[in-house]
Amino acid sequence: MLEATVIIGMGGLGCPAAVALARAGARRLTLVDGDVVESSNLHRQPLYGPEDVGRPKVEVARERLARAFPGLELETWSRRIGPEDVEPLLARHALAIDGTDSVAAKFLLSDSVARTGTPLVSGGVLQWGGQAMRIDPGGACLRCLYGTAPREDEVPTCARAGVLGSLAGVLGALQASLALGPPGPGGQSTLHVVDGRSLRFRTLTVRQVPGCAGCGGRA
Amino acid sequence: MTPDARIDITAEVCPMTFVRTKIALERLPIGGVLEVRLKGDEPLRNVPESARDLGHTVLGLEQLEDGTWRLLLRREGPAC
Amino acid sequence: MLTEPQIQRYARQLLLRDVGERGQEALGAVLVELALPDEVAAAAAAYLRAGGTEVHGLALSDAPWAWTPPLLEAAPQRRLHVVAAPTVPERAAVVVGSDAGRAVLWSLGESGCRACLADGVRGLGPPDVGAAVQTGSLVALLVQRRALGLASPIEGLALSEGGAISTLAARPCPHRPPAVPEAVLRALLIHLASALPDEGCAVLVGRDDDVRLVPVENAQATHHARDPEAFPRTARTAFSLDPRAWLGLLREVDRTGERVLAIAHSHPDGGTHFSGEDRRSAAPDGLPLLPGVAHLVVAFSGGRPGAARWALWSDGDFLEMDCPLPSGS
Lengths: 219, 80, 329
What we know:
The complex is a heterotrimer.
Chain A: E1 5-8, H1 14-23, E2 28-32, H2 57-68, E3 73-77, H3 83-91, E4 95-98, H4 103-116, E5 120-126, E6 129-135, H5 142-146, H6 165-180, E7 188-195, E8 200-207
Parallel strand pairs in A: 1-2, 1-4, 2-3, 4-5
Antiparallel strand pairs in A: 5-6, 6-7, 7-8
Helix pairs in contact in A: 1-6, 3-4
Chain B: E1 5-8, H1 16-26, E2 33-38, H2 41-53, E3 57-63, E4 69-74
Parallel strand pairs in B: 1-2
Antiparallel strand pairs in B: 2-4, 3-4
Helix pairs in contact in B: 1-2
Chain C: H1 4-14, H2 20-28, E1 30-35, H3 38-51, E2 54-56, E3 78-84, E4 92-99, E5 102-108, H4 114-121, H5 132-147, E6 154-159, E7 165-168, H6 182-195, E8 201-207, E9 210-216, H7 220-226, H8 243-256, E10 259-267, H9 276-282, E11 294-301, E12 304-314, E13 317-322
Parallel strand pairs in C: 1-2, 1-3, 3-4, 10-11
Antiparallel strand pairs in C: 4-5, 5-6, 6-7, 8-9, 8-10, 11-12, 12-13
Helix pairs in contact in C: 3-5
């Protein structure tokens, strides 16, 4: 049974991931998010309602989850975590879920897997699609997949910043499934790609890059 | 050129800047011209490019005396 | 037109090319009737409502979701029914079930074929609530695709242990009659009329978009004259494709790569019903002689074509459906 999982980012991915993990019997969840609920979040973050606008997300999430899952132990961090927080946070959890929405945060988390020994389920959703990948110690990381991190301003302009709420649900639930499943075989990770527009779902094997700056890679 | 519709997004932040622009464009008939008043670096970078992304045409972009910008867009195609 | 609160609420969705103001209004125009196990329904309802679609049929259990009602300007006009296998009513648009440990979802689009949906959901057990969040999210996705007009005629998904999602291939619909161009239909009617007062017959061959008429002689008169005991009916009430012509045609389509799409015949003064006799000829031992070939019956009355119907073999019987005739026929 899953012990002590930390969900970093309680937005479109974190909400469904938290519910799915709780339903699957997770006993302890740590929820991390420094943001307050905004009106434009509501279409894809169904733990929050219009009456919650302005309140810290993790507070609202804690209330909803505690009521629905009485045996669940919840710890909440209502702040944006910095690089110095990441490793200690991951080190004291059995698994981490990436619910962040910034490239920098995703790579920071990915880089911490090898250093802390804590598996991470990375994920992202945009427009009609998304990706999820479980990164285990000894498995391929985001740098093995992408090479270097894309610059923050290489990411989509606001025209391409639309996102379909139900897709976020699909991706977050997928992240939870990967968290509940077994670790991958060493030396590689499986990238799940979801396209809700063409309704296509693929998996790709990502191999560790020897000497990778993120995970060390196999020799 | 007299636009068919005008919007002022100088008080908006991304992504609402483009949300307003997109809706205004969708409400025009094909070939209609929209004037967008905007200000700030981010809208200046994002709005024209986002419009082009969807297939619309940038007819012009000029800076006005008060520092805001006047963007002219033509709505193209039904698929926007 | 959307109101200001709606624009604020749905801003990030409005940015999608396939949504925009019109798409958001389309999401709001549908009312989803959910008949699913509570936990799956809770997740589906949460995402549908969040996205701007109202949902009915949910027992208000203590779900963790926010239950935010959608912001709507007008009451929804169309109902869309989401049901759980194995009970699948005629009006179901989305069906959720399970098969050998996998969750299975089927969604029927606007132009979808009900018989194909029935094929897909046959044998499905009730939905499992294990992966309720995933299943519910996928229900919402399929419904939204349909509401936005992006769905294929039929879409199927399967969800395996460990979270892997896959699409289920839908076969080309065998329950649809071929699309016959008006000019070909007119030519068919002329040919059939020329056989009156006897039944006339013809074959339609071609490829998907390219259908042509092959008029054939009704050989029933010849058979009856030769052997009235084996062939008691005359050409007035029965038809038989001339064997030589039929064989020749089969060889020809083999060469050209076309297919036999349909066999048409007329009822000189009967209805369009694919009669018992017609059925016995087409499926003598309860199995179609020509699976995949549609049958077309044209009823004549007073020497003029009145109406026409298709009969298509599906799952043990012939399904009948109307064939509109060109005006002024």
